[in-house]
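Re: weekly structure request thread

Next one in the queue (342 aa):
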Amino acid sequence: MTLPEKLKQFTPYPAMTGTLSARLDGNESCYPTGLADEIAEAVRSLDLHRYPDPYAAEVCSLAERFWGAPEGSAVAGNGSDEFISISLSALLPRGGRLLVCDPDFSMYRFYASLYELECVGLERFNGVPDVNEIIQKGQYAHAVILSNPCNPTGQALPLKDILRIAETLPCPVLLDEAYMDFWEGGRHSALPYINRYTNLIIFKTCSKNLALAGIRLGFAFAGEELRNVLLTVKSPYNVSVLAQAAGAAVLRRPEWIRENTRRLCEAKNRLYERLSGWARNSGALVTDTDTNFVLLALPDAEGWFKYLQSRSIGVRLIGSSLRVTAGTERETDALMEALNNR
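Done, posted below.
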């Protein structure tokens, strides 16, 4: 069997598997949901022999309410990754140009290659891209995609810059706000403006501060025209009844989500402070972020990555840096003990 030539360039996503004593690699919530009883009660009455609501109306309405989005703007998906993928496949022609701000979430380039798009790279400086350069190069692109705050740099563009990009460019602007809630409570989100800027699609996830990475639930928010496109091209029953019920149970408790967000920010600040003290004596550089992770740049990052793996501690290797997710006090203690004893 002859496979397409393009498949030769792909490798599986480097997700860690197995049991680790400290999971600091995936940017998930280090704290469990705390709403297990509410989720169990919601699941207990489900008709598992029926297909799910194809529009996921209830959980979409709750998501709009929680994130302050216009009514009727949300579409639910199998994680926000699903909408990143189908947005690129549906909105760009084959061979179309996608403007990417490097470094950024690695799946943007993966999906672009899968759909045979041309990626036009734009370099970030001090973790953020040049807005004027985005606008200049975006005039010749079929779409622009960026995360804000950025994964992996952890830095963010002010709302006024995001709105300027959306207002100026004629092409779709795909904005990934997976980490927005960690940045001053999400007050810099562009969600309230999606009806004004009809080329804007915003992605949200339940995998971070909602502590629901395991159910694979995310959302895309857009004005009427682009929302209808997403509804048309997504799979008809893309979000299971289990995911819809669990997501709705948590989104009905916004006070719990805000408290978990606060705890995760505290955990990130604790991690940053402890790594900063260690870095002063080790030749490493720690970068604080507007997210739930920090970046640790250090000599022989790959060697440190493998060493931490040998100590049952998972982090993410990104170039010459380690991306370290905020963990529980026990996980942070385990990390620091390992760092101090190599």
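Residues 36-252 form a domain with the Aspartate Aminotransferase; domain 2 fold (CATH 3.40.640.10). The chain has two domains: 19-28+255-340, 36-252.
Next request, please.
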